[in-house]
Amino acid sequence: MNIKYATILGLKTRYLETEGGTDTPLLLLHGWGSSVNSWEKVTEKISFGGQRVIMPDLPGFGETQEPGNPWNIDDYINFLKKFTEELNISDFILAGHSFGGQIAISWASNQNPKIKALILMGAARIAKHKKLKAQIFVFFTKIGNLPFEIPMIKSLRPLVRKIWYKLAGEKDYYKSSELMRKTMGLVLAQEVGDRLQKIKIPALILWGDKDMVTPLADGKIINQSVQNSKLLVLPGAGHAINAEMPNEVSKAILEFISKLNPKE
Q: What GO molecular function annotation could you give as one example from this UniProt entry (predicted)?
């Protein structure tokens, strides 16, 4: 991996940039709790296929600094805009996995002319069946520790939080700092489903049929909502398709990109 560093919005930012390839670069966004390291096999294979890849550690993950305050999706989009400006990227293909996919959906729905195509992999979005999870996180984000200042409840704080966050289904909560926990709450509070129909660029939707984090039903909803999209299901794959099926993921991405600008 060709690892580089840049300062974006005052944050020391680590990013991967593969060498070679004259095509429009692929800007790849990882999921929550991930980093460029967990995508090494995929990025190498895509690079060997002749496609330039640029992938940052998003703020709060990998070796990129945490933001100074809790961020929402729009804050991450603003960061990425500054990132592409710093690297003088005029246009690119945007790809996102899970949390990165949620960012990608929101950004692409703004119809930014720099984004030429979209690739979504197990993209996080709050469907109807996820509203309880979102409400739980928004609740804790807003009230903070206030209820636990009551003497009778204070001693129960660890147990109560553990139960609530287990109910919400977020294992990554315990691995995050307090600031990033609040960021998670803000991110989950943002519904992106209503933005899908605003996406007009070509889109590839990659999904594992065994994904228990973002069910295949979500991928089908995205496919139905995004006009110029194709859904490709990976049999036997779960949520971490980058680790489980790097060959299949890389091949699908390269084939999709090759069809965007077919050679004469």
A: hydrolase activity
